[in-house]
Design goal:
Layout (H helix, E strand, L loop, with lengths): L1 H6 L8 H4 L3 H6 L6 H18 L4 H13 L3 H14 L8 H9 L3 H14 L4 H15 L1 H6 L12 H9 L4 H9 L5 H21 L3 H14 L5 H20 L1
């Protein structure tokens, strides 16, 4: 469903009260409608809820995610910031905000969000990867490797190989090969290849090769779609890249 896409994470969700969409939005959507239509409907219902109660934080979170997934990154960040300010105890869990900060070009603040998230989710290589990307874009590759957040407990293939890539101990090809290793069944293979291409793409983006980054993000989004939040992130990467390309034309 759309709201599995909106709220699920791998491997850890933010607390339900900050992640769940407004009930009206849930009722309004057909599970068979295209994702963009469901996102637009979620956005409309969140706007209506916030018109009635501007302090409705569940609706604010729904709107933040819907805006982000529709490529409206700057607007989404306003809402993510509102959620973080309203619920400071939950703010470290808002890894979604960190990703929005990355795509908004606010790399120092993004790094701080992922440093905070590491304290509540210490074994997630995805957190390490986004922190690495923020530091690399803000301060350079050497600084990113020196401040790489460790993780020893992420058992998902190929995440530990992704960590090796970030530290300079593996290549992008090694990550893709790790995702294919062991002859996994087709659904698991597709999921592993999604995450392999997603994080190879992020690595290329962080280290200054936007063409390769966009290619791998497109492979993740188009060839290995998975029903979770990160599939939306892969699609948003392409939207942001296209927006940047239009500005330079």
């Amino acid at each position: 469903s759309l709201f599995a896409l909106l709220s699920c994470a791998s491997p850890t969700q933010i607390p339900a009260r900050a992640a769940e969409p407004a009930p009206a939005a849930t009722r309004a959507l057909s599970a068979t409608a295209p994702v963009d239509e469901r996102l637009a409907a979620a956005l409309r219902h969140a706007d209506k809820a916030l018109a009635i109660d501007p302090k409705d934080i569940d609706a604010t979170m729904t709107r933040a995610v819907a805006r982000f997934m529709l490529g409206r990154v700057t607007e989404s960040l306003v809402d993510f910031d509102t959620v973080a300010a309203a619920r400071p105890a939950d703010a470290p869990h808002l890894w979604q905000r960190g990703i929005a900060l990355y795509y908004a070009g606010k790399f120092d603040n993004g790094a701080k969000q992922f440093e905070a998230h590491h304290k509540v989710n210490p074994d997630d290589v995805e957190n390490s990867a986004w922190h690495f990307a923020c530091v690399a874009r803000g301060k350079g590759l050497d600084a990113a490797r020196q401040s790489l957040i460790p993780s020893a407990g992420d058992e998902r293939v190929p995440m530990m190989k992704v960590l090796d890539l970030l530290s300079g101990k593996a290549t992008p090809d090694d990550v893709i090969a790790a995702a294919k290793s062991g002859n996994p069944p087709a659904p698991l293979l597709a999921r592993q290849l999604f995450y392999a291409h997603l994080y190879v793409g992020l690595y290329y983006d962080a280290t200054g090769d936007p063409t390769q980054a966009r290619e791998h993000m497109a492979i993740a989004a188009d060839q290995y779609p998975v029903p979770d939040y990160m599939h939306g992130v892969a699609k948003v990467h392409g939207m942001v890249a296209e927006q940047a390309a239009r500005k330079t034309r």
